[in-house]
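Researcher: Go.
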Amino acid sequence: MTEPNDARVGLYIDFDNIVISRYQQLHGRNAFQRDGIRDFNKSSPNADPEVAARLASATVDFNAIIDFAASFGTLVVNRAYADWSVPVNASYQRQLMSRAVDLTQLFTTTTRGTKNGADIRLAVDVVEDLFRLPDLTHVIIIAGDSDYIALAQKSKRLGRFVVGIGVAGSTSTSLAAACDEFEDYDSLPGIGKATVTTTAERPKTSRKAPEAAEITPEPAPIQARLFATNPMFSHTEDAQFDEPEAGDDIDPQTLATELLVRALQIGHAKGDADEWLNTGTIKNQMRRMDPSFNEKPLGFRSFTDFLSSRSDLAELKEDGPQRLIRLRPEAESRR
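Model: Structure:
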């Protein structure tokens, strides 16, 4: 039985957004359209085995997403929006229905598919639920589209805690900033590191699969995003989702260090410059400044390990059960 004080969570999945973004993260920009995945039926005798293999490697684990959402409280709304008659979408139905996800049908009315329809329908449903369910405490949006910025802001103004989950490389800078917390799909518990392939542009008439070069992906950025002065994502008439601008080569480790230093500076500014600060307070401050911050994609098992790796900038000590931190004076003078 649900306890009276339990948090109550609404989970809203822009299905096409997450599935297409994941495929293009692994196989290259515009790969979903280039490989004709929307109309691809792997059970067809004429199905290209190379495309089928790429599609299988990009399978999204919605169980991991739903489990993460449930960590915030009891799921009282659980919806996914898509055209479920499309083969690639239909292949997920059993997995989603086994987790009691409400499959909201969107019918294709334009040549661009259901993209705008999902945005609008999802946003309308969230706003309706915010007023219809006053005990709803959390809104979790599975998408990276900048169209959801206003929805996240509205949900926060109405007193809800907003969580976003998107695929690295296909998430709007401003959407991450508009959420109270933002997670990359790759950083969710149970999601292993994926192999990224790059494929050369090939003619649509060719049935021969291009050779793929496997590379080890960098840790999912945390993200460089909030420190950029220019938007990293732009929407064009021909693009189905926001795409990152070229030339984003900022080191995520450097950005995480800058975020830590700024959080410590803010903490010291509120009190004594030499005051020891609680590490939990500092992490909360970093997440407020950059909701997408997560130490695990940077290669650290815990936040303490992350802090220990920055010992030249900050010193740690234990005070009973508490871990404390402060910015080294020499580090402050160097910045």
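Model: The first strand starts at residue 8 and ends at 14.
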